[in-house]
From TrEMBL, chain A:
NDH-1 is composed of 14 different subunits. Subunits NuoA, H, J, K, L, M, N constitute the membrane sector of the complex. Keywords: Cell membrane, Membrane, NAD, Quinone, Translocase, Transmembrane, Transmembrane helix, Transport. Belongs to the complex I subunit 2 family. It holds the Pfam family Proton_antipo_M. The chain crosses the membrane at residues 6-23, 30-53, 65-83, 95-112, 118-138, 150-172, 192-212, 233-253, 273-294, 301-321, 327-347, 368-391, 403-422, 447-471. This is NADH-quinone oxidoreductase subunit N. It is found in: Cell membrane; Endomembrane system; Membrane. It is a multi-pass membrane protein. Its EC number is 7.1.1.-. Residues 117-411 form the NADH:quinone oxidoreductase/Mrp antiporter transmembrane domain. NDH-1 shuttles electrons from NADH, via FMN and iron-sulfur (Fe-S) centers, to quinones in the respiratory chain. The immediate electron acceptor for the enzyme in this species is believed to be a menaquinone. Couples the redox reaction to proton translocation (for every two electrons transferred, four hydrogen ions are translocated across the cytoplasmic membrane), and thus conserves the redox energy in a proton gradient. InterPro entries: NADH-Q_OxRdtase_suN/2 (IPR010096), ND/Mrp_TM (IPR001750). It catalyses: a quinone + NADH + 5 H(+)(in) = a quinol + NAD(+) + 4 H(+)(out).
UniProtKB/TrEMBL annotation, chain B:
It is found in: Cell membrane; Membrane. NDH-1 is composed of 14 different subunits. Subunits NuoA, H, J, K, L, M, N constitute the membrane sector of the complex. The gene is nuoK. Pfam families: Oxidored_q2. NDH-1 shuttles electrons from NADH, via FMN and iron-sulfur (Fe-S) centers, to quinones in the respiratory chain. The immediate electron acceptor for the enzyme in this species is believed to be a menaquinone. Couples the redox reaction to proton translocation (for every two electrons transferred, four hydrogen ions are translocated across the cytoplasmic membrane), and thus conserves the redox energy in a proton gradient. Belongs to the complex I subunit 4L family. This is NADH-quinone oxidoreductase subunit K.
TrEMBL record, chain C:
It is an enzyme of class 7 (translocase). It is found in: Cell membrane; Membrane. Belongs to the complex I subunit 3 family. The chain crosses the membrane at residues 21-42, 73-94, 100-123. Pfam families: Oxidored_q4 (PF00507). This is NADH-quinone oxidoreductase subunit A. GO terms for molecular function: NADH dehydrogenase (quinone) (non-electrogenic) activity. It comes from Danxiaibacter flavus. NDH-1 shuttles electrons from NADH, via FMN and iron-sulfur (Fe-S) centers, to quinones in the respiratory chain. The immediate electron acceptor for the enzyme in this species is believed to be a menaquinone. Couples the redox reaction to proton translocation (for every two electrons transferred, four hydrogen ions are translocated across the cytoplasmic membrane), and thus conserves the redox energy in a proton gradient. NDH-1 is composed of 14 different subunits. Subunits NuoA, H, J, K, L, M, N constitute the membrane sector of the complex.
Amino acid sequence: MNAIITSAVCGVIMMFSSVFVENKKTYRHIAAVLLLLLLAVNVADTYGIRLFHIDTKGMLLFDRFGYFFNSIAIASTLIYVVLTGRDIEKVGTYTAEYFVLIFFVLCGVTILSSYNTLLMLFLGIEILSIPLYILTGADKRNLKSNEAALKYFLMGSFSTGIMLMGITLIYGATGTFDIYVTPKETITGQPAIVYSLLESAGLILMMISIGFKVSAAPFHFWTPDVYDGSPGVFTSFMATIVKAAGFIAFIKLFDARADASGVEANAFTGVDWKMLFAILIVSTLLIGNITAVFQQSVKRMMAYSSIAQAGFMLFALFSLNDVAKEGLLLYAAAYSLASIGIFAIMVKMKDHTFEGYNGLSKTQPVLAATNTIFLLSLAGIPLTAGFFAKYYMLASVMKTSGYLWLVIVGVVFAAVSVYYYFRVIQAMYFKDGEATITEEVSKGFKVGIIVLAGLIILFGILPQSLLQWFYF
Amino acid sequence: MSTVPLTHILFVSTALFFIGMYGLFTRRNMITMLMSVELILNSVNINFVAFNKYLYPQKADGIFFTIFIITIAAAEAAVAIAIIINLYRTHKSIDVDDATELKW
Amino acid sequence: MSALTILLDANVNSSANYFQIGIQLLVAIGIVIVMMVASHLLGPKRSTSEKLENFASGIESHGNARAPMAIKYFLVAILFVLFDVEVIFFYPYAVNFKELGWTGFWEVLLFVAFFLVGFIYIIKKKALQWED
């Protein structure tokens, strides 16, 4: 509760700071301080210090999983603002408003990590998406940015429509929005076939719609355009924290629902969720990885790579056990931190193609070295956080018997992904060229990015250091 | 008292949903596409009210959900119109086919 | 009638239930047709240049209606829609306000306060200012 209200209030504070504070440079400092406050408030909430006592009537349910994800999301946003705050200022004239929208997105994220009814899920997703439509089109003079905003809006509102249709069907089946109520509890003594059919259809629609939001194939087609068109700094935010929040919403819903509507529970109307998710995973991994291989621009490659990473996060949805939930948190943290780092370096580059990175190790050795660590982490090389994240995901599938082929598919595509991540490393270290940077990199940025790379290696060596916090 | 059966209302709302979807995919004018999205949302509203009235009349849950949908739809429309105006100013057209800077 | 039978009852002979709706449709369409035909037949046809002009509520018209408008109008219109729709949340409160008592009152006051914050923000941002 602390985080939801505080993030909304922080957004309002930022709003008024845009009116009363003249100096553009102070906005990012204000935002960083407010994010630090938000993080502190959320950690306090984790340990039982509640600032607000509100009876949500079962609308929101706060648990350790949600709190922990909130902390990851807020901490990543803090790192993101510290690293790329200067670049956010360059996007347009409304600097403070961008931070306002980021705070409102965080409000949506915190709702998504604690919702207990479908109403709150809907509100959370909308609070998350509507500011993002604006952030995508933030570069008002740039045609690409405008187009990306339009595409994002059309696809986003379309998926909202599908999700709402799913919610109505589930409401028709259960008569409540509570995610833990299944038709069998509400309808007793009657042939409940119609109701469980409604429920299954509704859940499939929800799956499609959240699949849109997290850009799982075959609902991924908006992703490359939107990520490519929107300003680089906001692509970074969209591809990391927001996508992770989508997965948290996804797993919360299906953790509550999938068992009761699966084939094991109901042979006639149940849905084979495992099979459906397996298809989703394979197609996402296939499209994301194979298309990423053929990209010429690093920004577009990162868009496809984010689809591929979404495929790996979908493994958690497939297995839905404790290992999967832990692993999803670790994956969210590892993926967000590494991608934020790569994007932070990318927005400093003048040329976003692979050739633009040629010879970066000569001109900017620190950036090249840290970028290598981030890329290795995304590829899942041992000693980085990405390795354990992928390991947890595959281990969770191993616990489900009969799906060993899925693990093999995962490993194969992880190997494919190494190719295109290494292309960047190859360009930086083994090719001659003049990698140019738009402006001189400040010392603070270098320190920040080294700390970020250190964090990734720390989680890679001791993944328990992150996860044990989750347990006590 | 004889009433209109639920299936008929569901038929109307489903038809509206697919009309909206059809419009979204075939129309190239951005304003018309926005209207199609609103059609989809309104079909969902009809669904909610019908389910609430026929199946679960003891609580007004579904009707409250429609209120939230209406407000969110307004917010979405505001953002969409802002985006469309912005695109029109740089592009001088509100036809989606003219927006080809990014290939699908 | 139980809930399930309503859902499954596809073969209810229910055309009679739509009688009122049909009447209403007929009347609505009929009025429109009668009005249009009657005004066309009965009205005198003397067209002068003043009468052929666009009707702008009695104000002298400013040329074609499809002339581009200032962006200010759109901004105000969008803001109006946003603030107008939020009023919808007062309806449930208005129906239940006696039962909700003081807690409900404070909660609605909080809602209005958030509203007001947004309103102050747009005023401070000079979004409602007509003259530059």
